[in-house]
Specification:
The chain has helices at about 35-40, 70-80, 95-105, 130, 135-150, 160-170, 200-210, 225, 230-240, and strands at about 5, 10-15, 20-25, 45-50, 85-90, 110-115, 185-190, 215. The protein is an alpha/beta fold. It has a single domain, classed as Alpha/Beta hydrolase fold, catalytic domain (Rossmann fold). Keywords: Hydrolase.
């Protein structure tokens, strides 16, 4: 199995394709599988790295709460261990938040950034009623089934992971929009028009990053990366070609 020993324990990861390094950062209570189709398509033109964070996918959970700081540190440790000095970053949801922090705080490590369905703080979420239209019960069930199939901790640990994520999402992230003005990497901000993150909030992210592009996908919810992978990949590839 492709595990890499990192400071917080063995991390499952995959590497595919050749070209400039590109790292995929998955969302909360998900895994590389949520980005599988995008992963395979991008591997046709890039060296795609797909690490899975502690408590997600095939990587065992670690003691203590989740934090976005820990996600950034995990990503940096992964890139260091793989000898990757700089990479294109494509992040989804929690992974997109980590990507924003990487681009802001470690600009020398980020070639370009694609931020999909990120929020800057908990106020960015839509109302509970609107959120029910962002992800279907079938999508929730699919994520839980994937956790049961992949996690070395077993399905019995799923509720512990969910509880840690809920606690995280109550209080984090806390990213002041003006702080994103220091991001120098070419950036594409994406979300669905039925996303769990409010459209206005997504627009603030794009406006806060100098020169950032904004793409709102019609008819798509929070799991747009799984709902319409061909469109997402086409938009990402068009953006990445423009960064060369």
């Amino acid at each position: 199995m492709p595990y890499l020993e990192l400071p917080d324990g063995p991390t499952y990861h995959e590497v595919a394709g050749t070209g400039e390094p590109l790292v995929l950062l998955h969302g909360g209570f998900s895994s590389l599988e949520v980005m599988r189709e995008v992963h395979d398509a991008l591997a046709l033109g890039f060296e795609v790295h797909g690490p899975e964070r502690p408590g997600h996918g095939r990587t065992a959970d670690a003691d203590g709460p989740f934090s976005y700081t820990a996600m950034v540190e995990h990503t940096l440790a992964y890139l260091d261990a793989m000898g990757v000095a700089r990479a294109h970053v494509v992040g989804f949801s929690d992974g997109a938040i980590a990507g924003l922090l990487l681009a802001r705080d470690h600009p020398d490590r980020v070639t370009s950034l694609v931020s999909i369905s990120a929020n800057l703080d908990p106020s960015g979420f839509v109302s509970d009623e609107e959120a029910t239209h962002s992800m279907s019960e079938q999508q929730h069930a699919q994520l839980r089934d994937e956790y049961a199939r992949l996690s070395p901790d077993g399905l019995a640990h799923a509720d512990a992971v969910v509880n840690k994520l809920v606690e995280l999402w109550k209080d984090e992230p806390r990213i002041p929009a003006p702080s994103l003005s220091s991001v120098t990497a070419p950036t594409l901000v994406m979300a669905g028009d039925r996303d769990m993150v409010a459209l206005e909030h997504t627009a603030v992210i794009a406006r806060s990053i100098p020169g950032a592009q904004l793409c709102i996908v019609p008819g798509a919810g929070h799991l747009l990366i799984r709902e319409c992978p061909d469109l997402i990949t086409a938009v990402i590839n068009r953006f990445l070609q423009g960064t060369k």
